[in-house]
Write a structure and sequence with these properties.
The chain is an alpha/beta fold. Helix content is 29%, strand content 26%. The protein has ten helices and 15 strands. Strands 3, 4, 5, 6, 7, 14 and 15 form a seven-stranded mixed sheet that branches. The two termini are 14 Å apart.
Length: 326
């Protein structure tokens, strides 16, 4: 088969479409013939040499895919060759075939085309696990998501609105904020021109946000705590603003706040399977009913994954960037 390989860490040009050995499904795995994958920030980090896949897993980038089951490994039940699926991956999505633990498979939602389904697994699993399973966002609460126009952000807006929360977003342009508003965002904050702490407090009569989903890490740490409401929960899922920051513990104590930080990739198989099962139970019905949809900025040939990485690095996109096989 062919896959995107990384001969050595570097820029987008380090991604090369190369012939490699076919994967073989092991115990509890299926082999998926990939139709499409999607570009995630973690893929950029892997390309740069900062986010290596766990030992013994696929060395190729790609944390999600959609395709058809081509073979069933030992110990797998409930799936058949030919089933159309999408999947949460530990890696290997930028390829013609990938071996996937059966617990990380999802059926393609009714009414959604197969290629577009690749835009769902990573964002739905990330948002549902962090915002709902860990931070326990509830109806009528105020939810702030940074990077509201990203793949994560566009999904977070829709899911939070679906449960009855008030949604605030940050984004860097009017175009992006307008799109967030179309998805249902109530409070729009241009982080280039406005202070999100002041804006969220002004919009909530000084109370702040009950739940914050943060992709920035160190850069926003103290300001996020300042923006939290009493009993607020800050969920950190990214490090775009650095990995080390100072935290005012006194402020956090005074707000009886909580901070969590998670990734999906390194979690044990059982934990990932539990997240995928929860997404299938709670999110898939919303997708099939048309209340939630994947937002796709563009689709590019998988062999040109380098251009997909450039698009993410330039941050001009809204939603997901897909990589499709012709």
């Amino acid at each position: 088969m062919y896959a995107i390989t990384i001969s050595e860490p570097g820029g987008p040009e380090a991604l090369v479409w190369t012939e490699v050995p076919d994967p073989v499904p092991g115990e509890g795995e299926v082999l998926v013939e990939v139709v499409s994958s999607a570009v995630n920030r973690a893929d950029l980090l892997q390309r740069q040499g900062f986010y290596s896949p766990p030992p013994g897993t696929s060395p190729y980038p790609g944390l999600e895919c959609a395709g058809r089951i081509a073979a069933i490994g030992p110990g797998v039940s409930g799936w058949s060759v030919g089933d159309e699926v999408c999947a949460l991956l530990v890696g290997g999505g930028y390829a013609e075939k990938v071996a996937v633990p059966a617990g990380q498979l999802l059926p393609v939602p009714k009414g959604l085309d197969l290629a577009t389904a690749a835009a769902l697994p990573e964002v739905t699993c990330t948002v549902w696990s962090n915002v709902f399973m860990i931070a326990h966002l509830r109806p009528t609460e105020v939810f702030l998501v940074h990077g509201g126009s990203s793949g994560i952000g566009t999904m977070a807006i829709q899911l939070a609105k679906a449960v009855g929360a008030t949604v605030a977003v940050t984004a860097g342009t009017k175009e992006k904020l307008d799109f967030c508003a179309e998805l249902g965002a109530d409070i729009l904050i241009n982080y280039r021109e406005q202070d999100f702490v002041e804006e969220i407090k002004a919009a909530t009569d000084g109370a702040g946000a009950d739940v914050i989903l943060d992709n920035m890490g160190a850069k926003y740490l103290n300001r996020n705590v300042d923006a939290l409401a009493v009993n607020g929960r800050l969920a950190i899922i990214g490090m775009q603003g650095g990995v080390k920051g100072e935290l005012n513990i006194g402020t956090l104590l005074g707000k009886r706040g909580a901070i969590t930080a998670t990734t999906l990739r390194a979690r044990p198989l059982g934990e990932k399977a539990a997240v995928v099962a929860a997404v299938r139970e709670h999110v898939w019905p919303l997708v099939e009913a048309g209340h939630v949809r994947p937002i796709v900025d563009r689709s590019l040939p998988m062999s040109d994954a380098a251009q997909g990485h450039r698009v993410l690095e330039e941050s001009g996109h809204i939603g997901k960037v897909l990589l499709t096989r012709s």
